[in-house]
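Notes to self after the Tuesday call (sharing in case useful).
The group wants a holo model before anyone commits to mutagenesis around the pocket. I volunteered. Ligand is fructose -6-phosphate. Logging inputs and output together so the record is complete.
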Amino acid sequence: MATDISRSARITPKSKFVRHTKVPTQIFETSSDLAKFVASVVADLVRKKNEQNIPAVLGLPTGSTPLGVYRELIRMHNEEGLDFSNVITFNLDEYWPMDPDSIHSYHKFMHENFFDHVNVKQENIHIPRGDIAAEDVDIFCEEYERLIESYGGLDLQLLGIGRSGHIGFNEPGSARNSLTRLVNLDPITRRDAASGFFGEDNVPHHAITMGVGSILSAKKIIIMALGEHKASVVKRAAEMEVTDEVSASFLQTHANSLFAVDSAAAAELTAVKTPWIVGNIEWNSQLEKKAVIWLSNEVGKPLLKLETDDFLHNHLHQLIHKYGSVAQIRQRVFDGLLEGICTRPAGTEPQRVIVFSPHPDDDVISMGGTLITLADQGHEVYIAYMTSGNIAVFDHDALRHLDFVHEFHKLFHADDTKVLSHIEALKESIASKNAGDLDNAEMLGIKGLIRKTEATAGAQAAGVPEEHLRFLDLPFYNTGQVSKKPIGEDDIAIVADLLREVRPHQIYVAGDLSDPHGTHRVCAEAVINAVDVVKSEEITPEFWMYRGAWEEYEPHEIERAVPLSPEVVLRKREAIFKHESQKDSAFYPGSDKREFWVRAEDRTRNTAKIYNQLGLPEYFAIEAFKQYHGEL
Ligand code: F6R
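Result:
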């Protein structure tokens, strides 16, 4: 469907237009390319309406996805004079009940992230109110609809998409013609919001949202999705059947809508995951590897047993044409995987290695076996904990540690009344905290200490001595909130100094696309930039990436597979156990309820199983790595 939005998207650089979806879809290389594109669509509309001297009416979302768009619009306002004085805005939704002044309110979010930085007039801003009485909600919602209509409807609606498939807060079961109303939030949505509220129990159960019908009345719609945790819902919405189980799928019935996604969120689309199914493609070795591994899984045969018919019957005849026979191609993929299996990840000569751990447990959770192997093999291993991880510690853990210090002082410094009363005051501040309140700097410091001591114990269990641990405490992280600052020069300088100090031969970085809070991504950017800074000083380490606690690389992405013995897996488990504050029910478990050590073991055992099914040697468990080739 060639709509005006999809036409403008097609010519956007650093992006690719996908034909085979039912909602036209544009895939952007990075989230910032996507943000620039969407901001430019908004800016074009605002300028056009300003020239005609009529208001542009915008429908706006909150959440993590549109933040880059708001940042870019603010930049355009400041640097290019983009004028919002004639813009009318309607926000999609607000939690209910919710005080507009609460740090959790979408009122606060919109003012902090957008409205306070541009010249939108206060009277032109409309956001559903979370502080109205239950008996007034229906009238308020009808009035909201009337108000949108009074401006001639929305010119452009921007949307995010929830993992429940929601747009706005139209959870599964919302009707196509639903209007603004009070709704119950889906358990998935509440879980996803838990981190922002410091615990799922604090997330409201209700919200006021524009309906699917209200959204579909907009003249143009751009729905955005970032990150691989959105990949499966993007596929359901963009290319499967229209169903009220996935509200976003109703966009397939809108004449002028566009899905704008980054490459991680696009990963499950047929044209991306199995492009050979949808047409002729330009083969390269990476795609060939992906296709042959896919085929092996599809027909349930190990690589070296694949036959010509398997290729012919599964859309891969193009590969036979290219290579003349299947023998060569299956051998090539098999040999590549075999060569990637590596029991001496830093070689035979003693090397200096830095493992960068975004939070103080990613090192052992995601590559603890390799860490143990490297230390056992006599390499000089350093671990750089990039952030304190202080916001992920429960109050009850802080309280227990304060109790310990209290008892300790009573035991050894009974007369130190100053310290004792300080501890009492800290305990009191926890007791008087309301659900969802932010911690003060002192409490964050205590929580950071808890994680620091756990990390030290975890590293020692993995064989890395305390003097090789560096706690970088990168400034971008220190907001005391879930949302973090973007990467800054000071973050990069701290990492560059560490690279200068250690002059590593090899580094390991969490190259993560799916960390729910973006911290891993920022940490990876800090290292990438710092490596760039020090390369002129002849510091050019081998750069390996591992996945954080949430996902594993796909088999075709893996360039190095480090086999783990049962004993190493057990030692890794012991190291993970040292992170007591993250055990049982971690603060930020993401969508997966399993404990981190269980996830780590399932994941490494699963990779070993996949390798074995491909016809490669049978290992107990495997940790996977990919080399950094210029993109995450
Ligand atoms: C926000 C909203 C929601 C979000 C969706 C995705 O106003 O209506 O539909 O767009 O939950 O949230 P993020 O962007 O945080 O993943």
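Two things stood out.
The pocket of fructose -6-phosphate is lined by residues 61-65, 92-93, 160-162, 166-169 (CB under 6 Å).
The mean pLDDT is 93.
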